[in-house]
Amino acid sequence: MTAQHAGPAPAPRPTDGPSGEALPPLFAALARWTREQPDVPAVRAEDGALGYAELTARTAATAAALASAGAGPESAVGLLLGRSRDSVPALLAVWSLGATAVPLDPGHPVERLGSVLRDARVSVLVAADVPDGLAVTGIRTVRPARAASGALAVATPAPDGCAYVIYTSGTTGRPKGVEVTYRGLDTFVGALAGLGLPPGGLGLNAVSPAFDGWLWCTLLYLLHGQGVALVDLSLDGLRRADAEGRSPLPAGLRTASLTPSLLAAHGGGLDEAEVVVVAGEPCPAALAERFSRGRRLLNVYGPTEATIAATWADSERGDDVSSIGRPLPDHRAYVLDDDLVPVPAGTEGELYLGGPAVARGYRNRPGLTAARFLPDPFQGGGARMYRTGDLVVRRAGGELEYRGRRDDQVKVRGHRIELGEVERVAAEVPGVVAAACCPLAPGESLGLAVVAAPGSGAPGDLAAAVTGHCAGLLPEAAVPAVVRVVDRIPTLGTGKADRVTLAAALTAPERTGGTDGADAATAREREVMAVWAAVLEREVPGPSADFFELGGHSLAAARVVADLRRATGLRITLGKLLTRPTVAEVAAELDRLAAGPGAPAAPVLTAEGA
Questions:
Q1: Residue range 594-605: average pLDDT?
Q2: b/e string for 337-364 if b means 16 or more Cβ within 10 A?
Q3: How far apart are CA 256 and CA 207, in angstroms?
């Protein structure tokens, strides 16, 4: 039975455009769920939850405030709300006006935020608080609105109008803004709607609000009547969860979307999820197999320049989810050689993407736009295609196999090597769930880190198997000189592999205990130090070492806790590591747990109290 809406009056539902046009697909879905399940959670965050009726009401109120501030078609509206529940109605409010959303992450440096505001020419900023040092002169600031101000009227935007601008990292270090059109947004939303997820429950959104993966999660769940669970898996987020006595991952997750690196670290909390989406980086076959058992798995590929996603492999339709599958509906994928001629199936070529979801270009970068967005010779009529820089092979059945980046080419002793190819070959070894390759020294050798599946045996045996497999399939120069089994691949803020950090870790001596204080450590402290050294891939000098001062972060903390539990059989919690992050403190907590319930906390001697 449909729940009754609580409150003095029905919430406003989206209405047709000013000329009676049908609602855009996103707002049509919002109208449906507001009508059919007004009190079902639509958004859940640390600062509270919104049902579908309240989501629509807040969207209407925020839209009215934005319109009063001058927001409209082609005006850029900055969204600086982080993972607040207000972030979703603010985004919908911008789109209801046909304006341009510019998502921002309050966790980014103020200098980057200011650069984006200037480059995007933001005229209105939605923010509860403006970070210290962020110059907003000439920008009207609007706070999230709470009360409804009438029905949510939805404008009909121009198809070529700019729906949003996402800033991605550039090779020069200067962020570049990708302009996505309303035509592209509607095309993408139409493709998402065809996935047919069941309504109700929550969908996990743990992505930075400045990346288009945040949009993927938000749109996927709202279209299907699920709730957007905005979750912060950073160290600050994990600490807040521990202080509040709650799990970082909420109960009731039906759908989860994560990068493979994040999935490998936090997948243990997704037992209830019926659908898992991996995106953002290559997904090794072993990881795909592990998380496709008993549930639906989608392996999604797509650059920002093609409106979030362009291809997917779906286990429900029988796809090989170690591939990136086939193009989304109304999307086109071409595998071409350097002369833009299609290559035969089974032959490696560069992937070009076409169709109405191709972005408008890069904001204020006409030269770069012309170089990456080319006329589509297979369509004509002014159609364009985007040159991805990604290498793929089209299999005989039509599925696309990702082979790496063109710009991931390096030279080793004069030989041109594709890092993605080395990673792909390494991931073929049974037991490898993730692999990342990097050059160790200019022109000399390669290093490779692999993550092992549980129960894969001794790390040395797996490393030897990977080396032997690579030697059997790759040219001698492409065989990694160093192969190390690690608990996690170091990642960037996007969740993708951080090759610079990886190279530094692989060139450092492999440590298992340490010196300079380790000799005086207790047996339990040495046990903790060994686990930290393996996860952080560096020396742990002694009992007073601080996990976070050694470079630990949220993913590493999750790995350390899991490894300590396996090694000791004791249920130490992530919260204990976050609040008592030295070797001595963690060891003392383990000793207390070993002593049984009710045991007093063991004293920890400090330098002053020793």
A1: 55
A2: eeebeebeeeebbbbbbbbbbbbbbbbe
A3: 11
Residue type, position 70, single letter: G
Residues 267, 488: Cα–Cα separation, whole Å: 13
Residue of higher predicted confidence among 267 and 512 = 267
- Give Cα 116 to chain centroid, integer Å: 20
Q: For residues 147-163, b (16+ Cβ closer than 10 Å) or e, as one string?
A: ebeeebbbbbbeeebbb
**pLDDT beyond 50 at 610:** no
Question: Whole-angstrom Cα distance, residue 458 to residue 448?
Answer: 17
Is the pLDDT assigned to residue 379 strictly greater than 70?
yes
3-state DSSP assignment of residue 33: helix
d(CA 353, CA 303): 9
**DSSP-based three-state secondary structure for 580:** coil
Question: How high is the mean pLDDT of the chain?
Answer: 87
- Residues 496 and 280: beta-carbon distance below 8 Å: yes
* Cβ within 8 Å of residue 236, ≥6 positions away: none
Q: Which tokens in the block code for residue 367?
A: 């030269």
Euclidean distance between the first and the last CA atom of the chain, given in angstroms as a whole number? 66
User: What stretches of 176-331 show up as alpha helix (H) in DSSP?
Assistant: 182-193, 212-223, 235-243, 260-266, 285-292
Q: What does 340-364 look like in DSSP terms, one character per residue? A: SPBPPTTSEEEEEEESTTS--EETT
Instruction: Give yes or no for a contact between 559 and 490, defined as CB atoms under 8 angstroms apart.
Output: no
For residues 63-94, one letter each, b for 16 or more C-beta atoms within 10 angstroms of the residue's C-beta and e for the rest, the string is bbbbbebebbeebbbbbbbbbbbbbbbbbbbb
Instruction: Assign 3-state DSSP to the chain and report helix, strand, coil percentages, each to 5.
Output: 35, 25, 45
The Cα 610–Cα 608 span in angstroms is 6
CA 120 to chain centroid: 23
Instruction: Please write down the HEC assignment for all residues of 382-407.
Output: CCEEEEEEEEEEECCCCCEEEEEEHH
pLDDT of residue 518: 55
Range from 3-17, 319-333, 402-416 carrying the lowest mean pLDDT = 3-17
**Residue 20 pLDDT more than 80?**
no
pTM of the entire predicted model: 0.75
Q: At what angle do helices 87-96 and 25-36 cross, to 10 degrees?
A: 130
The answer to whether the beta carbons of residues 304 and 359 sit under 8 Å apart is yes
Q: pLDDT tens digits, residue range 533-546? A: 888 777 888 888 88
Give me the numbers of helices (H) and strands (E) for the chain, helices first please: 17, 26
3-state secondary structure of 526: helix
Scanning 427-498, the segments in alpha helix (DSSP H) are: 459-473
Q: Where residue 466 falls among pLDDT bands split at 50, 70, 90? A: very high
Mean pLDDT of 475-487: 84
Tokens of 233: 């898996």
User: 213-222, 387-396, 500-509 — which is least confidently predicted?
Assistant: 500-509
Are the C-beta atoms of 266 and 558 separated by less than 8 Å?
Answer: yes
Tell me the pLDDT tens digit for each residue of 308-363: 999 999 999 999 999 999 999 999 999 999 999 999 999 999 999 999 999 999 99
